[in-house]
Automatic annotation (TrEMBL):
Residues 45-59 have a biased composition (Polar residues). Pfam families: Peptidase_M1. Residues 350-534 form the Peptidase M1 membrane alanine aminopeptidase domain. This is M1 family peptidase. Binds 1 zinc ion per subunit. Residues 45-71 are annotated as: Disordered. The keyword Metal-binding applies. The active site is at E411 (proton acceptor), Y485 (proton donor). CDD domains: M1_APN_like. Its cofactor is Zn(2+). GO terms for molecular function: metallopeptidase activity; zinc ion binding. Zn(2+) binds at H410, H414, E433.
Length: 671
């Protein structure tokens, strides 16, 4: 999922404060900026696009449907097999569905109960766990008075017709909230032996909320995410360090996303005839009109979720695409009419990112990739990933900046880390969001020449927290995003800084190859990292992944006194450099003297401080640590620089990079 954390007001306030301080300390000569602020997508230059008049009118929907076939060899363990039939009733914004799901016991332990996620129940009222934790807000999107929804199970039976509804129990393993009904347990009359199977049949009803938190409606637009009773993930011994077989059970939380087993989905979707449908997987045949409704049929295998969207207004565009690692895929755009003239930008972003990710990390094995653009006001459905299907941000503007490309690039990156590697987003969200944010930046730089300003991003780390922890243990959504998106990306870049970009690419490719379709853990990634680099990374992970440390390098003190050497007057300068937090390796230090002499040094990064004692004919003027701003995890760069000639009571540490940033920020006040 793509965060929309905008800090304009805080930035302006900080800029004003820094400007005042700068003028007081006479640092006017430092206002020379070579940075590009690219973290905010809208700050980048506007991409050139064709006007609507120069583009051909896209087709409304494919007239014929190619006949992709299920994969001849399973790529995953396919634990669950879903056959579903769902009918959209657009007037009352409800889904009525039936489901037959077969679960295969993958472990060595007999299983006597199944667990289902009933995610729409998160929107029943303000007292659910999701609503309590989120406060009715996710990113910049807020729930409305109509953002109320639910899932009701009308039937739950075995194949022989035995009803299991009386045995259904809602469970709350995370917080014991009696108002939360997002996780349910079913006791089976007969246990399932290792390797055995059980099939359950359900009939269910979903009331869609006005779009919020990934699902719902906005006018005639429908986003059906997490819309069906979904089996919880069952982890066998050895998966993510598990010592025994068992269910991975969590409620729907304000910060968490999702975690499921791989399987097969065979889904029939019935909508009013004026609607067009986008969905996970591929259509098995052309839609059929019957009795005022249109019936679609989709199939997907080796995926762990199924989502779909519908709208009578979709502008449909489709192109075939292949590249190394992408043997053949049909890229499908479902555009809001306001963005029909932007089809080439969406298609270019989809093709470019898919090609880059496949080249860098591994093959994309699916035959389709769909991109949905929600309408204005529907951004609660925007910026989200599902298997073979992503949503861009809503069409709020006719001429968006690079936020269009960046969001598409980010969400398609999830096809690899969320979709195929399939980390547990309840418990280790950084393995998806951090990896995707890292990869997103690589594509934006390689394809669009847009570089993120990493020193600025590290300065946002005001409340670092461990990356490996349950998503709802973060203080709020901003705290969650700050860490699992941004800080996690910086931690990966800190590794890259030490091993080089080519080696980092080899690390991620080895990780993807080893653990696609396998649900890895943080420890699994560390093991791959150590294997490929042939060195230990325990201290690094202890500090930055399991711990909440940053790597603040500071010029701590400068002491100068006149001395005589061989009867000649000189100045002895004693400089102390210290570090708080973990180490990212060697740190460059530059010492400049009054006569212009520069003495570079390199601190190997061992220990927590180092002292330099130098004699020179003139006094020391200033010292800067990490002058090239290579320390990705330094969030307090204001103490990297110190001028020596100022009186002690007025001496102020200063960060040259931050001063340059201020100039840029002042130029951005009119965004």
């Amino acid at each position: 999922m793509y965060p929309r954390k905008m800090l304009r007001i805080a930035t302006i306030l900080a800029t004003t404060a820094v400007l005042v301080l700068s003028l007081r300390q006479s640092f006017g000569d430092a206002w020379l900026s070579g940075y590009t602020y690219a973290y905010n997508p809208t700050a980048a230059p506007q991409p050139s696009v064709k006007t609507p008049e120069t583009l051909q009118q896209p087709a409304s929907e494919p007239e014929t449907v190619p006949k992709p076939k299920p994969k001849p060899v399973a790529l995953s363990n396919r634990i669950a097999e879903y056959h579903m039939d769902v009918h959209l009733h657009d007037k009352d914004k409800k889904l009525h569905g039936t489901q037959s799901v077969t679960w295969k016991n993958p472990g060595q332990t007999t299983v006597s109960e199944l667990y289902f996620h009933l995610y729409p129940n998160a929107f029943m009222n303000k007292n659910t766990t999701f609503m309590r934790e989120s406060g009715g807000k996710l990113r910049e999107d807020r729930a409305t008075a109509d953002s109320v929804g639910y899932m009701k199970l009308n039937a739950l039976t075995l194949e022989n017709g035995t009803s299991l509804l009386p045995a259904l129990q809602y469970v709350r393993p995370d917080d014991n909230n009696p108002n939360d009904m997002t996780l349910a347990r079913i006791r089976l009359p007969e246990p399932v032996a290792p390797g055995g199977k059980v099939t359950l049949k359900t009939a269910f009803e979903v009331k869609l909320p006005e779009v919020f938190a990934r699902m719902g409606y906005s006018g005639d637009f429908i986003m059906a995410g997490q819309w069906f009773p979904k089996l919880a993930a069952y982890e066998t011994a050895g998966t993510r360090g598990s010592t025994k077989d068992g269910w991975n059970l969590h409620q729907y939380h304000g910060n968490s996303e999702f975690y499921s087993d791989f399987g097969i989905y065979n889904v029939r979707i019935q909508v009013p005839s004026r609607y067009k449908v986008a969905a996970t997987g591929f259509p098995t045949k052309s839609p059929v009109i019957s009795g005022g409704n249109k019936i679609y049929h989709f199939y997907a295998d080796d995926v762990h979720d199924f989502a779909w969207a519908a709208s009578p207004d979709f502008v449909y565009v489709e192109e075939a695409f292949s590249a190394p690692g992408v043997p053949g895929v049909r890229i499908k755009l479902y555009l809001d009419p306001l963005h029909a003239h932007l089809k080439e930008r969406y298609m270019h972003a989809a093709k470019s990112s898919l090609a880059k990710y496949a080249h860098w990390y591994g093959d994309y094995p699916y035959s389709t990739l769909s991109v949905i653009v929600p309408p204005k006001g529907g951004n609660g459905a925007g910026g989200m990933e599902y298997p073979t299907l992503v949503t861009a941000f809503a069409a709020e503007s006719e001429s968006p900046g690079y936020s269009l490309e960046r969001t598409v690039v980010h969400e398609i990156g999830h096809q690899f880390w969320y979709g195929m590697v399939a980390s547990n987003e309840f418990e280790e969200a950084w393995l998806d969001e951090g990896f995707t944010s890292y990869a997103e930046d690589k594509v934006m730089e390689a394809v669009y020449g847009v570089e993120s300003n990493l020193p600025i991003e590290s300065s946002y780390m005001t409340s670092p927290a461990p990356l490996k922890q349950h998503s709802w243990h973060y203080e709020n959504n901003d705290h969650y995003a700050e860490n699992v998106y941004m800080r996690a990306k910086l931690v990966l870049l800190g590794i890259e800084q030490q091993v080089g970009e080519a080696k980092m690419q080899a690390i991620l490719r080895a990780y993807f190859k080893s653990f696609k379709f396998r649900h890895p853990s943080t420890e699994d990634f560390q093991a791959i990292l150590e294997k490929v680099t042939d060195r230990p990374w325990g201290d690094y992970f202890k500090a930055f992944v399991y711990g909440s440390e940053m790597s603040d390098v500071a010029v701590d003190s400068i002491h100068i006194k006149p001395v005589k050497k061989d009867g000649k007057k000189q100045y002895e300068s004693v400089v102390r450099i210290r570090r708080e937090g973990g180490s990212l390796g060697p740190v460059a230090v530059i010492l400049q003297f009054a006569d212009g002499t520069t003495m570079p040094r390199v601190w190997d990064g061992n220990g927590t401080e180092i002292e330099y004692r130098l004699n020179h004919d003139t006094p020391l003027s200033w010292v800067i640590a990490d002058p090239n701003l290579t320390n990705m995890l330094d969030n307090k760069r204001i103490n990297n620089f110190m001028k020596a000639e100022l009186p002690a009571k007025e001496r102020n540490r200063w960060n040259m990079g931050l001063v340059k940033l201020v100039e840029l920020m002042l130029s951005r006040i009119g965004w």
